Amino acid sequence: MNIALIAHDKKKDDIVSFAIAYEKVLKKHNLFATGTTGLKISENTTLDIKRFNSGPLGGDQQIGAMIAVNNMDIVIFFRDPLTAQPHEPDVLALLRLCDVHRIPLATNMGSAELLIKGMQRGDLSWRKNKKTI
């Protein structure tokens, strides 16, 4: 499966902790991340991650492009709801694409853990038979 890992600045430590905790699971999949998030995860794990630009410099849109052509299966985006983001329109566009294309989306540690555990059980096997819209 193709999995995107994204985190706002104040949530980067959380996504690194998540990646460390689920490294054995994540290692079995194709991982993509926005620039700084991917760098921090790479520095703290042995995961192989394809890094895009940072979110404000177009990384959210690059991941969105993958979603739009049905090349992303899961998005894990640890958002900071208490800090204004200068690229909020890009963030909202990414979330909208997940909804339009039925891409499972986790925006915090709790939902990410449920999503990963479900993936481990095979609950997302329907994504293997995905059809391009």
UniProtKB/TrEMBL annotation:
Pfam families in the record: MGS (PF02142)
> Which residues does the Swiss-Prot or TrEMBL record annotate as the active site?
D60
Task: Look at the named UniProt entry and state the broad enzyme category this protein falls under.
Answer: lyase
Q: Which InterPro entries match?
A: Methylgl_synth, Methylglyoxal_synth_AS, MGS-like_dom, MGS-like_dom_sf
Q: Please name the SMART domains in this protein's record.
A: MGS
User: Which Gene3D superfamilies does the protein's record reference?
Assistant: Methylglyoxal synthase-like domain (3.40.50.1380)
Record GO biological process: methylglyoxal biosynthetic process
Q: What is its EC number?
A: 4.2.3.3
Q: Which residues form the MGS-like domain?
A: 1-133
What family does the Swiss-Prot or TrEMBL record give for this protein? Belongs to the methylglyoxal synthase family.
Annotated protein name in UniProt = Methylglyoxal synthase
Tell me what organism the protein belongs to: Senegalia massiliensis
